[in-house]
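yo

u said u wanted the structure for the complex thing, so here. seqs first:
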Amino acid sequence: MTMSRDEVFQKVQGVLVDALGVDEEEVTAEATLMGDLGAESIDFLDIVFRLEKAFGMKVPREELFPAEGLLNNPELISNGKLTAKGLAELREKVPHTDLTEFAKDPSISKIADLFTVNAIVNYVAGKVNAT
Amino acid sequence: MRWIWIDKFVEFESGRRAVAVKNVTAAEEHLHDHVPGFPVMPECLMIESMAQTAGILVGQAGDFQEKVVLAKISKAAFFDYVTPGDSLRIEAQIGTISPEAASTSGRITRGEQLIAEIDLIFSHIDRNLAGKRFPEENFVFTGAITSLLRDFALSGNPSGSRGRESGG
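structre next:
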């Protein structure tokens, strides 16, 4: 089954409207889940469950939100920033996220900003069209 | 007062769905305080009754090994008042269950009439709060729930009682 990016976006939008209680207009491609849409950690699980249902596929949480796991590793973080090694690891884990801007100042406080609507759409589109 | 808002389970299909009943009586103090002069069951307690029904369903699916706590009310819609004399049927169904959490959907009915639709998410907290420590013992599933499941022989049932099998 192939789906256009627009189709994927619309479904993801519906999932986020239901999971986060936000308006459709707020769910833009650039919106960040935590900053703009007010998501909390339990919402990430809710989003994962709803995506699985909407697209009929398994969505491992660490695949969709992989940066969560990096934050507890002292080897990858120094002075509140990701080290070169940390950044390399993050790149490997989030091939569906654009890290160009983030790499200029890889503060861990900004990792939350990487969870955008677009990142979810990229992930789902990649997965749906690969199968 | 005991914080138990269901009377007993009447159907239990492990890992799938469960139905509990709650008989509302005028002897319940709080009914008279919520809206003076109009005894009514507070809607938040209907959510709690669903959380107990669905939470025990989720807990039993993991043999009561996980600490299952209510993490999110995804949906709560109410369609009528509940007053003394009402018999409520609280039906919960597991949507998704994973090692770290579960989602459930549920309906509360009185006879044929729909009273509420309540969808919840539960967290297995030992797996979700990195670094934070909780007591070893399972403080969620204590003896208090034993009597609710008295009619069922289920794996992990803390009572170890043996009743009739689930109708499922």
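The radius of gyration of chain A is 15 Å. Chain A has two domains: 1-59+115-131, 66-113.
cya
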